[in-house]
Amino acid sequence: MIPTKAAIIDMGTNTFHLLLVELYDNKYETIYKEKIPVKIGQGGISQNIIHPDAIKRALHTLKHFRSMIDGEGIQNIFAFATSAVRNAENGNEFVRQIKDLFQIDVNVIDGKEEAQMIYEGIRFSGSLNGETYLMMDIGGGSVEFIIGNSNEAFWRQSFEIGGQRMLDLFHYHDPILNEEVDNLTYYLQEKLTELKEAINLYQPKGLVGASGTFDTLTDIHYASLNQSKPKTQQVFQLSRDGFEVILQKLLTLNKEERLNIKGMIPMRVDMIVVASCLIEFILKLVPVDNLICSTFALKEGAIAQLMGKHSMAAAVNG
Predict the structure, then answer these.
(1) Contact at 8 Å (CB) between 286 and 175?
(2) How far apart are CA 58 and CA 36, in angstroms?
(3) GO: which molecular function terms (predicted)?
């Protein structure tokens, strides 16, 4: 069957991703990909608005994305926005602006839908088998948790406790104070009671982290061993001990010092401290020896869904 070209735009609270792909029946090829730290949650997420400066950054980035899409002659554009936009009072107006300026229809997905797409992305990466896993994706605005295996997701939920929110609420000093870490832990205990109940019910045996923070943690781990991560690999392991070494470092360094850690990227340097505290909290609920880190998440889940539709169309037309 003739491949279909498609563009996926993932408008995350922290990062905007553009992925241009060619879809086949059971695989895809990446034409181009780019990520830009737009940080649309900055300055407004705790007040449920998108700050004017953040809107400017977003529109500037989307203009660039639109020109890349047009350069490839792609008609099929799948754009979706998550926590920062779905909770913002000016979110609908922002979406209308994007439609007027760039003729891009943005689908503002709810938390359950976001969690399902993340699950499909993780499954697509080959991270799962018949075992039951807890999967997590730490976004800037929300954190998605899914419990399931390679066949299905038994439970999925989105919590509005993302990196930008935790940063605004708890990370006032740099390095972070012990007291701030304690306050963050109490907050997570309060916010994640439903997750604790689900863990008790389904008893996951493994923990999978999707993309973002987990990509950076594995980058740092590999860099500490003077190794580079294989570019074509989608699944990495990070030992609990390896994670603890990185966490202790992050808790004692200020921003400038964190930037000097080998493997750190500037777009992750602010949120990685609170995000790692969240991972530590989860490791107490699901104590594993190794963290599985999937480079696939939301946007790859969108590709998996599109490939399913592509195959169905082929079957109907064939």
Answers:
(1) no
(2) 9
(3) pyrophosphatase activity
- Among 109, 143, 158, residue at a domain's last position: 109
> Residue 63 maps to which CATH number?
3.30.420.40
123 lies in some domain: yes
In the chain, pLDDT over 70 holds for what percent of residues?
Answer: 97
List the one residue out of 65, 88, 89, 87 whose CA is nearest residue 78: 65
Q: In what order do the strands lie in the sheet with 76-81?
A: 28-36, 16-23, 4-11, 76-81, 106-108
- Mean pLDDT (the chain) is 95
pLDDT tens-place string over residues 294-314: 999 999 999 999 988 756 544
> Residue 180 is which amino acid?
E
Residue 311: count of CB within 10 angstroms of its CB:
15
Domain termination site, one of 83, 109, 135: 109
3-state secondary structure 262-276: CCCCHHHCCCHHHHH
For tokens 């695989």, name the residue.
27
The whole-angstrom separation of Cα 213 and Cα 202 is 25
Q: Tell me which residue of 244, 246, 238, 136 sits closest to 192, measured CA to CA.
A: 136
Count of structural domains within the chain: 2
Q: Which domain holds residue 18?
A: 4-109
Query: Which is higher by pLDDT, 203 or 232?
Result: 203
84, 196: one domain: no
pLDDT digits (tens, 9 = 90+) for 185-221: 999 999 999 999 999 999 999 999 999 999 999 999 9
Question: pTM of the entire structure?
Answer: 0.95
- For residues 143 and 280, membership in a common domain is answered with yes
Q: What does the pLDDT look like over 171-188, one tens digit per residue?
A: 999 999 999 999 999 999
Cα–Cα nearest to 302, from 141, 142, 106 = 106
Taking the CA atoms of 78, 60, 11 and 65 in sequence, report the sign of the dihedral they define: positive
